[in-house]
Amino acid sequence: MNRYSIKMRASNKEYGHISGAEKIIPEEALEQYCTLLLARALRHSKGKPDFINLKIEAVEEAEILHLPALNVTTVETSSPEEGMDAVLDYLRRLGLEQAEQIIALWQQSYSMRGAMLLDADTMKRLEPDRERGIRATYMDMETGDEARQSACGNKNHFNEALVLATKVVSHPNIVAELCISDDPDYVTGYIASREFGYIRITTLKEMGSPQGGRIFLFRGTEDEKEACIRYLQQQKVLVDLNHLVTVQTGR
Ligand code: PML
Ligand code: MG
What is the largest CA-CA distance in the chain? Predict the structure, then answer.
């Protein structure tokens, strides 16, 4: 099957970045998905874009890595403090001695376009460009056309984040990923790792706050860092969301 990667990003002078999304879809669906992504760019709650970029690239089947989605556990928390405590617990359970420092550094990712790449042991920041950060891209969910289409028109935070986190923590040098959404009305965030899967934390910030960002926690050598950045930014990945394992838990 011939496939294409489509990436949409929209911005305006008032807000800067407004919305972005990406898909990896079969050739016969290309026109339809361009229209759906365009509609998404035009209808974002942050306002009308004055710039929309649609980038379309052919993807060879052999280039695609297929991954099962991480198992999902939801941890109910009722305040950002409780949410951060839950993240701290998981960081410690992953053997990360600098857990508090990692949480403190998270704020520095809020102004970045991509994620912070942080050495999990030395706390050294590893992104070549600190403003841009690392953009994990070229991924989509591998699921029925109907589910993909509905996820395309409206942002589904959970599905998109699960796809990204599955790609990111599947790399052997990534120990975990932390994420808080920058959408003011979305307070659920997560910590993802191969060891514990995708742990959704239902309250990680105050409602109304536009602050959010990602940290990828890295452990490895300089050469492994280069290879890891290439994987995050260039490897095409399709994540199977058809057989999701989900668990609900208190703390
Ligand atoms: C984002 O806004 O891009 C991040 C979304 C985090 C989703 C968390 C979840 O619902 O599981
Ligand atoms: Mg956002």
Answer: 50
> How far away, in angstroms, is 155 Cα from ligand 1 center?
10
For residue 162, the ligand 1 atom closest to its alpha carbon is 11
Sheet strands (E) in 125-184: 139-142, 174-180
Q: Which ligand is nearest to the CA of 210?
A: 2
Nearest alpha carbon to residue 171 among 189, 142, 194: 194
| Cα–Cα–Cα angle for 140, 143, 148, rounded to 5 degrees | 65
Ligand in nearest proximity to the CA of 214: 1
Question: Probe ligand 1: pick from 22, 112, 160, max atoms within 8 Å of CB?
Answer: 160
- Residue 85: what residue type? D
Return mean pLDDT, the chain.
Answer: 93
Question: What are 217-245's pLDDT values in tens digits?
Answer: 999 999 999 999 999 999 999 999 988 88
If DSSP codes are grouped into helix, strand and coil, which group holds residue 76? coil
Q: Is a pLDDT exceeding 70 seen at residue 150?
A: no
Please report the sign of the dihedral spanned by the C-alpha atoms of residue 247, residue 193, residue 154, residue 24. negative
For ligand 2, an ion, list residues with CB under 5 A.
Answer: 182-183
Q: Is the CB of 90 under 6 A from ligand 1?
A: no
Single-letter residue type at 65: L
* pTM higher than 0.85: yes
Convert the pLDDT of each residue in 76-126 to its tens digit.
Answer: 999 999 999 999 999 999 999 999 999 999 999 998 989 999 999 999 999
Q: Are 66 and 241 in contact (CB under 8 A)?
A: no
**What CA–CA distance (Å, rounded) separates 225 from 219?**
8
> What band does 33 get if pLDDT is binned at 50, 70 and 90?
very high
